[in-house]
Records
---
Amino acid sequence: MSEACPHSFDEQLLSGHLDHELTQAEEQQVRIHLEDCEVCREQFGQLELMRKASMSTPFATPDDEQWNEQPRTQTSRLFRGTGWILVLAWFTVSLGVAGWTFATEPGHPLIKLLVVSGLAGMGLLFVSVLLDRLRSAKTDRYRRVQK
Amino acid sequence: MAVRQVPPPTDEAEVVSLAQAGDREACEALAVRFRRPAYLLALQLLGNPDDALDVAQDSLMRFFITLGRFDGQRPVLPWLLTIVRNRARDIQRRQKVRRTESLDAVVESPRLTDYRRNPERETYGRELQRKIWQGLSRLDRARREILVLRDFQDLSYAEIAEILDIPVGTVMSRLHRARRGLRSVLEEELGGFHV
């Protein structure tokens, strides 16, 4: 944890000095203080380094084609969200009904076991592929490159 | 087809004036000139490229809708960034924006020439940029906003005061608190850094 200035210097002036937003008298006050105070000198060095690193971060920006896409409106977001909820509800209910029917209908236990293990295997394979795709999609910086 | 005889305007106030009069080319010129800073502010505030593009597009649209009320003698950027900041706040209130923790997902590819100059320094600089990006997501919204406006957007205290609607005198104290907050996060949670 960084120490506080032992001389009770008004530390916010360090930010003003860094940003060249002080009056001439305040600039002079900070310069004189920095010559004597190692704690503030270190803090100023850290603030300066943080600012330089922030300013030089090379953010990527969208290309012209992306700018020309229509923004998603509130209405389209609402419709999309509602659509997903309905689809998920339909899928869950259908799956439940199918599972219940399969479990209660008479049938040979070995056949039931084969069906259940086959479906479970396929389900696990699907989930594993889905997880890998989701993970790579988050970090793939070339996902918008046209093929 | 009619050929435009008037030379393309270069002065911002002149372009604004033409846009207010309904000149499509002037509107296009304004959009192209200011969409990048609008996107970058939205990205830095929200941390998510998709949401940032939505906010930037929406903000530009609102900017043009309200252009008739805009005083053309004032600079465009603070006005537009105020709209972006307000739109970003709205979207954060309404939905949980998922901030991208990885800086690699939002930066340009590194240039090889940078590494040739001073590889160790470049690598350290990039590592610090990553930590700062992660650190930003751990700050509260008010601190993140003022840090982004000054240290990423390089706006003056007067411009920051206008965007955040606070007195200029408050900017320095609030900014310093935010910087100290980020420094603490870097030191305590992200392995520290050295000068």
Note: Confidence is low (pLDDT under 50) at residues 1-9, 111-115 of chain B.
---
Amino acid sequence: MKASILEVPRGFWSLLVGMRVTLTQFFKPVVTVPYPHRTLPIPARHRGHIELVRDPATGRPLCTACKLCERACPSDCIFVDGAKLEGEKKKSVTVYTLDFTKCSLCGSCVEACPSDAIRFSKEYNLASTRKEDYQYDLVKRAAARKGSS
Amino acid sequence: MSFLLTEPYRLLLALVALLAFVAVNAMYLVLAERKGAGRFQRRPGPNEAGYGGWLQPVVDVAKLLSKQLLVPPGTDDILFRLAPLIVLAPAMMCLAVIPFSDVLVAREINFGLLLVFSFGSINVLAIMLSGWSSRNKYAIISAARVVSQNVAYEIPMLLVAITLLMITGTMDLNEIVRQQAGWFWHWNLFKVWVNPLMPVTFVIFFICMLAETNRAPFDMAEAESELVAGAFTEYAGMGFGVFFMAEYANIVVGCSLATVLFLGGWQSPFGAWSGVLWFLVKMYALVFTVIWVRWTFPRTQFYGLLNLSWKILIPISLVTLLLASALLKLFPA
């Protein structure tokens, strides 16, 4: 009897405590970001699709078209081709296509690369309604990229 | 222009003003609700339409008005179309007797409290009709819930109102406010020398008001996670919009009534500069509390809801009633 009567004021007090908690949150600053206008920095280890690293001096891709990444890929979504340019010792990449519909971002290609010529990008606004939009030409994308590397 | 203040025109003017008041309140309380929900969850709320989202209600109304009014096959056509009207009209009727200030009242009636309660209970009927006529299992379940919930909560609310009536001795809302003139301890909420349980009666009144207006944590009629949208599931466009308006109109009526009965209506808390501003401040403070409660507590289960009423609120309100009557008998004013 006594316990069940005491339960009423105790229950009511617990409600007030809950309301105090929400009211303190009410006056604290907003923690979300209005997405298209402002974005949060992407974490350093974010895995976007892979991209070619460029030589900061020449602006050309570091890739030597050794095709180790092509062989390392478990889903067979990379195609690489290269050619030897006049007066150069190493081959340089001419074709590098990535079929992003099949890529699972496992990173085997990045690990396999002997010359650190590919890395994960920070791209994530990649929505499209057509499958063909995901056949990336990484040489073209690297050339179009701003910045030195 | 002075003919506008003679009786039939004045009433007409007041009713038009009340229609506008209800419509604007419904629009902007929806925004306040969404903004409030945002703030309670540490996000900004709607902020795209207009500066800081101020045009959001206009956009919402434009969207709702442009939608087709669907009447699904197999519904009870007349009742289905009638229900939104029956839910909104009584809420507006109630506001006609609420005194916004000493003179700012559409119709001063000496049984205003009775009118508010009798029209307020039509709300249940309308939600039941919409659920009944929708030919939808969720709507039917919702209708059944609304009826049992409102039967359960009407009782403590009326018991509390009777307690208050015995103290005030009148049903005239203006007169009730006039009796609370002076400093804030003259408000019925703080009149502990008349009845030491007065703050408790206010809390009971507020809880019952939440339940009567089907607000969270008692939103059984519209429990979206269980019943889609309850009685409003089959309504499209402005049919749904009117139910929404009615919900907020009912909140305004409930908070106005709580202000008039317990918080001194348009009386200022320190005995001077009484006026409509104080009424609005108190009323909107209560509306904010309603929003605050909604975003604090999860929905109760149905038996929890009924237990709260039958096992806690009704016994306590009976005790306050007995105490008030005993004290009035022992120490007549």
Note: Residues 72-330 of chain B form one domain.
